[in-house]
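note to self — DONT lose this again. spent like an hour looking for the file last time. sequence + predicted structure for the chain T wanted, 180 res
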Amino acid sequence: MMILLSGCVLFLASHFINAFGYRQRVENAIGHHGYMGLVTFASIVAIIMMVFGYKQTEVEVLWLPLPPSYALALYLMPIAAILIVAGNIPNNIARYVPHPMLTGIALWAALHLLANGDIASTIIFITFGGYALYRRFSLEAKPVEPKPVWLDVVVIILGSGVYALMLGFHNALSGVALSY
């Protein structure tokens, strides 16, 4: 459990460095790209720690998920995947859903919280979902100019592909087999 918790703390610390006023100091020392690289590296290490920590943690059930929560996660996760992709490609979705990537991560975390009742999963999904919600509502929404509709189609196709890959490799990625 310690590796899991350490990974969550590292993830949050690397993302809250800006909130505590250290970003400018770090950027002055190593530059903007160095700062971004440091946050990216810390995030990757944190996620690896969370995965290994999750795999080593004994299952401690907090609650038994309702059976419909599995189907809900299965059917709504494509929306989360599309929103996450929409946060990284210019499109019109961002005109209607402010900060689509953060909204998608919050949806992903909420759906997984509903479908899992163990303490390790709860810690992981509250970490990601809580951070995503905090950032989603603390950032100013930027006006988005209309984009060609074909970009929305690209986002939907790529998001659906990401979902299909995550579904197919869920066990390899997270160590959790899905039951359909």
